[in-house]
Amino acid sequence: MLISDGYREQQRALHERADYGVASLRYAPLVAQAMERAGVDELLDYGAGKGRLAPALQEILKRPLKVHQYDPAIAEFSAAPQPCAFVACIDVLEHIEPALLGNVLDDLRRVTAGLGVFTVHCGPAIKVLPDGRNAHLTQQPVEWWRDRLQTRFDIVSVGALPEGACFVVARRLPWWARLLRRIAGLN
What we know:
By secondary structure, this protein is an alpha/beta fold. The protein contains six helices and six strands, in the order ααβαββαβαββα. Strands 2-1-3-4-6-5 form a six-stranded mixed beta sheet, with helices on both faces.
């Protein structure tokens, strides 16, 4: 389970607000830069919300892109996604129900076939849920997020953001492949 029915309804209601789900626009240049460096034209927007990342990337990159969108709170994006070579998860993880965060991180591991760009906000949100809770259910420092991500991914880089961090991650290689890379001096 990635989201409870009650929380799905709260997220759906918040997404009806024009001022909710706008962070992807702010981080689109960062995602576009990572896509350029990775040489990819296809991505999965995990936690797509209103789907604003796709047109923003199209405007920046000015080339055809194939964007898959997943968000369990948005009916049109709620189908379980297939693995993709590049995954963007922008301003999503801090919104996940704490009891289900491990499941969501495991699902991100499942769908990240190559690289991922994940941004996390580490403090409270300005917005509140319909039930009165802060919209950021998981408010933890960067190191806490790093600990959870590095058990599932190889962390390529961590960049500081004003309110949190941007993690560039890669699909975690099996133990034997990591050992071979270390022996070959590639790590």
